[in-house]
Design goal:
By secondary structure, the chain is mainly β. The chain has 3 domains: 52 residues, no CATH class; 94 residues, Immunoglobulin-like, CATH 2.60.40.10; 90 residues, Type 1 dockerin domain, CATH 1.10.1330. The strands form 5 sheets. Strands 6, 8, 9, 11, 12 and 13 form a 6-stranded mixed β-sheet that branches. The chain has a 3-stranded antiparallel β-sheet with strand order 5-7-10, with no helix packed on it. A hairpin with a 6-residue loop joins strand 11 and strand 12. Helix 1 runs antiparallel to helix 2.
Length: 247
């Protein structure tokens, strides 16, 4: 019985109009005709078998854990490997990154990858949530997305010293109490509560919050400057090498 036959063709190619069932063998031949000479069949019928492609195995995202907070603006993304049961086909991946989990318009995506890790090539803006997923494909089997969509929050610590200029007593404000605290310190009392390396990477850590005259040191001159400020003098000036940064 003929399973399917073509209409009369003028071309030498044809695609069956229906999807042939998998894992079956099919025979095909061609008959040439012109309406006046005898018909001629091809010399030998051909045989082919339709083999179903094995689906890629499911795979999961690993790191960063879902909804984790990361202290780096270009975190390393890691996922499991997907396997193609049909030998000879390498599985490749593409990472999609977006600020919304619907991925309608991913703003960043990787090149084709053979590895299961990827680092975004740019520094993601701080204090934002980003969503990511991975697509696996081989070029012959149907592609498979990762089993999850993960999100992470970029919370990179500021580089530099986080302080309020003049806050010698660690109250997160600059008041007359800081003047009193500074006087006590230079008379042998407790040291200012905040110490920071300034400039960053210099190895020189000192009481940056007590420097109100911009001298990049904390001395009795700063206490004098504080007193003048609270009597209507000029405002506090941070060390220009390490102005305060804020989260």
């Amino acid at each position: 019985n003929i399973l399917v036959s073509s209409d009369t063709l003028s071309d030498t190619t044809w695609t069956p109009p229906l999807c042939l069932p998998n894992n079956m063998t099919y025979y095909w031949k061609v008959i040439a005709l012109n309406g006046h000479a005898p018909n001629r069949e091809c010399d030998t019928p051909f045989i082919f078998t339709v083999i179903e492609d094995s689906p890629l195995t499911p795979f999961s995202l690993i790191s960063p854990p879902n909804l984790d907070s990361v202290e780096i603006c270009s975190p390393l993304l890691v996922w499991q490997r997907s396997i193609d049961a049909d030998s000879g086909y390498a599985v490749q991946y593409q990472v999609l990154l977006n600020q919304t989990p619907d991925f309608e318009s991913p703003f960043l995506f990787s090149d084709t990858l053979s590895d299961t890790t990827w680092t975004p090539p740019l520094c993601l803006p701080n204090y934002n949530t980003y969503y990511w997923k991975v697509e696996a494909f081989t070029g012959h089997a149907q592609g498979r997305p990762s089993t999850q969509i993960f999100g992470f929050y970029v919370n990179e610590p500021p580089v530099g010293c986080t302080y309020v200029v003049g806050d010698a007593n660690g109250s997160s404000s600059f008041t007359g109490l800081d003047v009193t605290y500074g006087v006590r310190y230079f008379k042998g009392g407790p040291a200012p509560t905040y110490i920071c390396e300034c400039p960053p990477g210099s190895g020189n850590a000192w009481y940056v919050s007590g420097d109100v005259n911009g001298s990049c040191s904390f001395s009795g001159l700063d206490v004098t400057y504080m007193v003048r400020f609270f009597k209507g003098g000029p405002g506090p000036i941070p060390c220009p090498n390490c102005p305060p940064v804020h989260r």
